Amino acid sequence: METQLQTSDIIQNPGRYVQELYNQYAAKLLGHIFEVVKNMNIAEQYLIAVFKDVPNELNELSKSEVNSFCYLQAMARKKLTNFFESVNDCAVADQVPATANPNNKYVGMMTLEQQLVFCGVYWHGKTITKLAAELDKTEETIKRVLKECFTTIRNSSR
Amino acid sequence: MIREYIDSGILETYVMGVASDQEVKELMRMKAKYPEIKEALKELELDMERIADHMAITPPPSTWNKIEQEINDLIVRPETDPEQFTQRENFSSKQNGNQYIEVESESSHMRIHKNWKWVFAAVFVLGKIFLGCAIYFYLENRQAQENINELKTEIRQLKK
Question: Using an 8 Å Cβ cutoff, are A99 and A90 in contact?
């Protein structure tokens, strides 16, 4: 799924490397950001901000053990921190995750509890501690639920 | 023990970016030590890509241009040694064709042959000689005119 460029190539031609990353991951990243901000113009601005910072992260991104997409997503999440704080919370009280996109087949196959945990972390940037407090569960339980979410995703993609 | 660690959900917490610093440190240590954890982590990272791929939205075509423009302003060009001048094979081989390349120069300066400096020096020295001669003959002429006037005055007085 991922084609790693040689470190020397990256140093010699960082612009090409950024474009390579953009071609591979921009669509995925934009989809993720859009699910958070729900506005295409704002999502595009965040996407630009993320890729603009990539030249500063070349040392980390060029490491063979680093998954480029996850690293880019982490960069996006860092930029979205302020947005996470200002955005409407998941409708936990109504027991309906506000961000559970009906078009997302993976989320659709999760139980309500799994949806609340997955959406809370993935699209609302909530910490395990915060979710544990909100759902009145232990942190270990939340982590276990999160693991179940991934098991569901993996099973549904087979 | 490793199975327990993997099943604890700590790996999922990490790939979702919500693991604490202590958890990340521990995970990095375990990952380096146990290939099973490394493998499980890789699988989860692919799962993350799979989720994102499902929700992917192609960015507008202009987005990359905006990014490229900003990056080009930031990227410092790597230092390279100046290339040594060598007679290009294709340049010297074009003996029959036009050997000169038309270049519209933006510089206001011109380059001339070194021999021209002797010409300029000679012109300068000759200029000085001519100037000196001109001043000398001007003064001589003025002196002669004064002498003539004095003689004329003397002749007029003698006539009286």
Answer: yes
CATH architecture for residues A88-156: Orthogonal Bundle (1.10)
A124 touches chain B (CB under 8 A): no
Of A93, A94, A140, A90, the closest CA to residue A118 belongs to: A90
Domain boundaries, chain B: 2-74, 117-160
Q: Indicate whether this model's pTM tops 0.90.
A: no
B61 touches chain A (CB under 8 A): no
| Best residue of B67, B69, B75, B77 to probe chain A, by most A CBs closer than 10 Å | B67
Q: Chain-centre distance of CA B131, in angstroms? A: 48
Domain ranges, ordered by start, for chain A:
7-85, 88-156
**Which tens digits make up the pLDDT trace of B113-141?**
888 999 999 999 999 999 999 999 999 99
pLDDT of residue A94: 44
pLDDT per residue as tens digits for the range A36-55: 888 899 999 999 999 988 88
DSSP assigned state of A67: -
| DSSP-based three-state secondary structure for A43 | helix
- Overall average pLDDT of the B99-110 stretch: 62
- CA distances, A58 to each of A5, A10, B72, B95 (Å): 11, 8, 15, 49
- For A7-85, CATH number? 1.10.1740
Buried/exposed A91-116: b ≥16 CB within 10 Å, e otherwise: eeeeeebebbeeebebbeebeebbbb
